[in-house]
Amino acid sequence: MLAGHTMSLIADLWTLQEIDVALDAHRASLADAESRLDEPEALAAARAHADACASALHEARSAQRDLEREADDIRAKVGPLETKLYGGSIRNPKELAGLQADIDQLKRHISSIEDRDLEALAAVEAAESDARAAAAERDVLQAAWDAEREELAERIAGLRLEAAEEDGRRREQAALVSTDVLKMYDRLRAAHGGRALARLDRNLCTGCRISLPTNLVTRARGGGALVHCPNCERILVA
Ligand SMILES: [Zn+2]
Fold this sequence. Notes:
binds zinc ion, Helix Hairpins, 4% strand
């Protein structure tokens, strides 16, 4: 093989490797961006919490309204009894005393419901405050996620475009190399962390940092043939 031919082959392979390394980095960034497209768990948790607070508030309000309705119903019964008591139509003292006792009992009942109503109102206020805080937290996380998702979508679109362009350049560059050499290149790349070629640093292989025999270094620098590192197998580039 002529030295000039080998040197241009190595240069083509080196360019191919640069494209492949960039393509690998782009694909990794793309995979990373795509993996972050799922809604964050914290947002789902905040939404569930806000929903739970909203239904707790709904229940607290409904319980409080039930108490008011119950008190109203009893008040509605007291009115007619008092009319009867003070109306003068009943004169029998025993009957009057009985009526008074009924009214007193109903009023005690109203009073106890009013106590519970105060507690229910306090519970409604607490539930309102919880629901407001939970909704605010959910909204903050949702807005942050909306912005992040938009940014991710733009980033993904950009990376896909760049990767497609690099794919095209890769195909063009790979077409410059014979099928057999390309197969060997791909095999070495797959076996050695994406890099089939390694530069020489004096007599060191920069792929595996091993010190190489002088005759091997001389042959690699001569450019008469492809020379592989005896340790990591990579094609040595002078
Ligand atoms: Zn090596």
